[in-house]
Amino acid sequence: MRLLLLTALAMTAFAANSVLTRLGVAQYGTAPEAFAVIRAASGALVLCLLAWARGGGPAWRRAGLWDAAALALYLAGFSLAYRSLDTGTGALILFGGVQITMFAGAVLGGERVPLLRWIGAGVALLGLAVLLRPGGQIAPLGAGLMAASALGWGLFSLRGRGVRDPLAASAAAFALATPMLLPLLALSGPVTAGGALTAMLAGAVTSGLGYWLWYGLLPRLGATRASVAQLSVPVLAALGGLMLGEALTARLILSSAIVIGGLALSLLPQRNP
């Protein structure tokens, strides 16, 4: 039960990231490039302070550069995509892509995937296909950027399975990702007060603390269960989008229902042969 509650808390934080980014970029008018940099820097500051306060500081290691690169890809694509995508649509593309990435990584890594989890994953991806089928009026550039973001987040999550100290690893990843994102500022436009505040909140709380929690849960969930659990996020994000005045379309409702059905199927207990 504790694992379930903590996983639900992490998923809520992920959904809040979509809402905050859409709010800061599309409604408050902050350039997505600047939003990504502020978000990363805020997460780095909070996590490094917590790591130093606990003793030991961030876990600087050579492999951490790959973690940071995956995180930077996720943060950049995420902010840029939300200039043209609605909250729920973006989250559905993101976590559908994350599922593909993490399932592929799990299979290549030799993780045993039960049949029901395969079927559930297939049903969930069918829900994503319903959303993205021709005629859905989804911005192609936004969808492509969110797919790149999904690749980054999937790789970041896969690498987090073997982390022994989630706080130290998360602090180092955010600290190293921030300078990787700085070149985006050369392309950046205006930064508003509201956009900066939402970026800091997304970085310090729903990203920094949320990802620290997620890194701690990953070893207990495994790659495939973690990927499927994240498919609950688009539904939560779509509900959050209602607060921003976004429409809840029939296509998004149908797609979300199929995705949640796949999630439920994948999480059914497996019988031993």
Ends apart, CA distance between termini: 26 Å
Tally the helices: what do you get? 11
The helix fraction, in percent, is over 70%
- Number of distinct beta strands: 0
Helix and strand composition category: mainly alpha
Write down the overall mean pLDDT. Answer: 86
- Biggest beta sheet summary: none
Number of domains: 1
Note the beta-strand portion. Answer: under 5%
Radius of gyration: 18 Å
Written as H for each helix and E for each strand, in order along the chain, the element string is HHHHHHHHHHH
Shape: globular
Unreliable residue stretches: none
Please, could you describe this protein's structure?
With 273 residues, the protein is an all-alpha fold. It has one domain (2-266). Helix content is 75%, strand content 0%. The protein has helices at residues 2-27, 32-54, 64-81, 87-108, 115-132, 140-159, 166-181, 193-221, 223-229, 233-242, 250-266. Helix 1 packs across helix 4. The radius of gyration is 18 Å and the shape is globular. The mean pLDDT is 86. One of its GO terms (cellular component) is membrane. InterPro entries: AA-Vitamin_Transporters, EamA_dom, EmrE-like.
